[in-house]
Amino acid sequence: MYFCKPILDMTHKTDWFTSWFDTPFYHILYKNRNDTEAQIFMQNITSFLQLNSNSHILDLACGKGRHSVFLNSLGYKVTGADLSENNINHANTFANKNLNFVEHDMRDLFEDKYDAVFNLFTSFGYFEDEQEDIKVLKNIKNSLKENGIAVIDFLNVIEVEKNLVSQEKKLIDGIHFKINRKIEKGFILKEIEFDFEGKKHAYFERVKYLDEEKFTLYLQKAGLKIKHIFGGYQLSEFDKENSKRLIFVVS
Asked: Which of 13, 24, 144, 181 is most buried when burial is the number of CB atoms within 10 A of its CB?
């Protein structure tokens, strides 16, 4: 039987991800994510960066480890880090001598240094205070070895706003999810409601509305230098009106 404590206050502002990411419902809602697309991106970006086969990569906010596992299959040593205990417990089923997972808040420093740090699939911009987001970027910089490189894969907020689907319903594993999306107070907000076993559940997801200019300012404040900007997983040129992604390669 699934069990989680519902959050009924949709205006709750403190670490929304701590509760939502650790529920089984989060994983049900997103069970059909495109692993092929993720793998193509990893192949493309590691080839572009010409990472040595002995490189140690930190997958920061690794979720259930899908990118980490594939990177490891390419021959890299990988550490996956995520705040969610459930995510790490799942990911650890794939661990080996060159693939390990740790429970870690991205706002906290890592003791180790890495050849590359990957922050993927919009795992950034969660916090109310922008200083915490900048702190994450500073931690990324501090986690890099000399000549290390970082990849930050964010959504393109301009394209998202143009094509925002304000209401959507999904039936997955017998659960009817009602999803509302809006942009307010500098955030892209997704509200998720559903009934399960006679109880109403409500959660939300929230990421900052960071366009290229604002994100660049954050990177500058963290002391990171932009080397390349891509607009998609095929490493296409960034088009602020039409690109699906905003991908920074920084050092």
From this structure: 144
Contacts of 49 (CB under 8 A, 6+ apart): 116, 149, 151, 249
Whether residue 165 is contained in a domain is answered as yes
The answer to whether the beta carbons of residues 101 and 79 sit under 8 Å apart is yes
Please give the tally of structural domains in the chain.
Answer: 2
> Which strands make up the sheet holding 187-196, listed edge to edge?
167-172, 175-184, 187-196, 199-208
CATH number, position 123: 3.40.50.150
List, in sequence order, every residue forming a beta bridge with 230; answer none if it has no partner.
237, 247
Q: Does this model's pTM top 0.70?
A: yes
Residues 151 and 178 in one domain: no
Which helix or strand (DSSP H or E) is residue 215 part of? helix 212-221
Alpha helices in 124-184 (DSSP H): 130-142, 157-162
Tokens linked to 185: 């107070």
Cα–Cα distance measured from residue 243 to residue 247, given in angstroms and rounded to the nearest whole number? 10
Residues 6+ away with beta carbon under 8 Å from 64: 27, 87, 90, 91
The token pair at 238 is 């960034």
Amino acid at site 102:
V
Does 135 share its domain with 204? no
Q: Are 138 and 179 members of one domain?
A: no
